[in-house]
Amino acid sequence: MEAKAAESGMTDKMIAEKDGVIGWMIFNQPEKHNALSYEMWAAVPDILEDFAQDDDIRVVVLKGAGERAFISGADISQFEKNRSSEESTAIYNAATEKASKTLETLGKPTIAMINGYCIGGGCSVAISCDLRIAADFSTFSIPAARLGLGYGYRGVKKLVDLVGPSYTKEIFYTARQFSAEEALLMGLINRVVPKEQLESYVREYAGAIGGNAPMTIRTLKATVAEAVTDPERRDLDKIARMIDECFASEDYREGRTAFMEKRKPRFRNR
Prior knowledge:
Layout: E1 2-5, E2 14-19, E3 22-27, H1 38-53, E4 59-64, E5 69-71, H2 79-82, H3 86-105, E6 110-114, E7 117-119, H4 121-127, E8 131-135, E9 139-141, H5 144-147, H6 153-163, H7 165-174, E10 178-179, H8 180-186, E11 191-193, H9 198-210, H10 214-227, H11 236-247, H12 250-260
Parallel strand pairs: 3-4, 4-6, 5-7, 6-8, 7-9, 8-11
Antiparallel strand pairs: 1-2, 2-3, 9-10
Helix pairs in contact: 1-3, 6-7, 10-11
């Protein structure tokens, strides 16, 4: 396994690891339950772009360091410095927007491995991933109404697309913590597993995804993104081109051959 802290100009509060087909992005501030600092947000795009350029990485998994939290929200100790004026708030928001957009548009599948607190900005990061798998003791909350924060349209829209308008209102109106079982019921997460099985389950799940055809998965991810875009802004021609590329690919030929030969396919992303 190759592991490194975020590189020059970034922070040691973010760690990138490469392990076979899986790229791990680790939020590394366990003493604060992995609360997100400005520097952590700023490091996210560089880590993801490195994973995007590495053909060996087929799936990206996000997790929090330690045993108690995925991400407990924003690092409030920085608010006086980074979110107390219009100018500083704009800079902070630009970093969070860039991180979220890079995560959402990454051409590879993303999984949030949620082990404990998933609060505020943690929920924002999690719902920017394709899949969310949580330990059974995890809790979820967006406490904006307790802090007097205005929540941006894109973040609310992502949540509405995921759980629907009524649950979105309940999450924001109450600002309370929801259990993993409640989160599963509303569709906020995909799976709940016992705490002691979480990492092994996610590794196996990510490995299974990583063994499938990358071009097919990339095309499906792009198709779903267009499906939840306003109709007048959808680029269906792009999707048609991506589908054509799948049918013309070596991987499609390999998939057919492997099926006929009753063996596991060896996809090469071309």
